[in-house]
Amino acid sequence: MAKDLLGADYYIVESSRAYWSISQYKRFRECEERAVAELAEEWTEDRDSTPLLVGNYVHSYFESPEAHEIFKFENGSTMIAKTGATKCHLKKDFKVAEVMINALKTDKQFAEYYIGEKEVSVTGVINGIDFKGKIDCLNIEGGYFVDIKTTKSQIDDLAWSDEFRTKMRWFEVYGYVLQMATYKELLYQKYGKEFIPIIYAVTKESIPDTRAVVFQSDEKLKYELAELSTIISKLDAVKKGISEAILCKHCNYCKSHGLTDKVEIY
User: Fold this and answer.
1) Is 104 helix (H, G, I), strand (E, B) or coil?
2) CATH number, domain containing residue 200
3) Within a domain: 103
4) Do the Cβ atoms of 43 and 34 come closer than 8 Å?
5) Tell me: the pLDDT tens digits for 55-109?
6) Which of 84, 98, 103, 259 lies 20 to 30 Å from 151, alpha-carbon distance?
7) 3-state secondary structure of 164
8) Cα gap 255→232, rounded to integer Å
């Protein structure tokens, strides 16, 4: 049976081999050698999946009741406490997710924005290379799209950028501006018109804050997309095995394979 690389099988490794995504691009920027090993299924990062699951818990609720029930069924063993005072109930992080869901449900502006087709896969070409993306909510008639982003900090908070050696807005540091720019470009290629990107932020607080971050100016979006276009050909050659991958020399993959620097001249 053929796999649906842009649908049910969107997140499997075969889809990642066939298409670039912004999350994959960020992995290659962090460490090319590790990213290649991940695609070859020779390395799996031992990371805490809780933040990702919390975000997906919130996303699935606003996708559809069916999607939310499926998500809870598939991830129940991770979300439900097995011991202690909260045994058989949601763990603390997922109780926070429920609070975030309620914050968005009671946000009238969110209800007005979050209208359209949910979980829309879109593809296109950037500098001759196939890209994919999955948009939380696409309103074709309204000419905009919305992605829900959960954040542990306050919406106005700054985060440290290792790349630029300064503090910036958290959605800039985590690559969400690039994600919005890429989605906008892919949608333009498909529909032949401009779409306004919107990040709808909700904080992981006991009393969550919510806000629509609307990207009206193209300046930052064009800068991010231009940088991606400049770099992606080189990274694609690495992905295809044409060019040799570069080591970051400090990630867990490099450390576990003895690929870190062993001598430092101070």
Assistant:
1) helix
2) 3.90.320.10
3) no
4) yes
5) 999 999 999 999 999 999 999 888 988 888 777 788 999 999 999 999 999 999 9
6) 84
7) coil
8) 26
Return d(Cα 111, Cα 245) in angstroms, integer: 45
pLDDT value at residue 231: 97
Task: Give the chain's length.
Answer: 266
The count of domains in the chain is 1
- Could you tell me if residue 92 is inside a domain? no
Cβ burial of 263 (10 Å; 0-12, 13-18, 19+) is exposed
Residue whose tokens read 């109930």:
89
pTM flag (> 0.90): yes
- Whole-number average pLDDT of the chain: 94
Contacts within 8 Å (CB) and 24+ apart, 238-244: 238/28, 238/32, 238/36, 239/20, 239/28, 239/35, 239/36, 239/39, 241/36
* Positive or negative: CA dihedral 104, 221, 176, 158: negative
> Strands 144-151 and 196-203: what pairing?
parallel
pLDDT, tens only, 148-202: 999 988 999 999 998 889 999 999 999 999 999 999 999 999 999 999 999 999 9
How many angstroms separate the CA atoms of 56 and 148, rounded? Answer: 10
Contacts of 238 (CB under 8 A, 6+ apart): 28, 32, 36, 244, 245, 246
DSSP 247: P
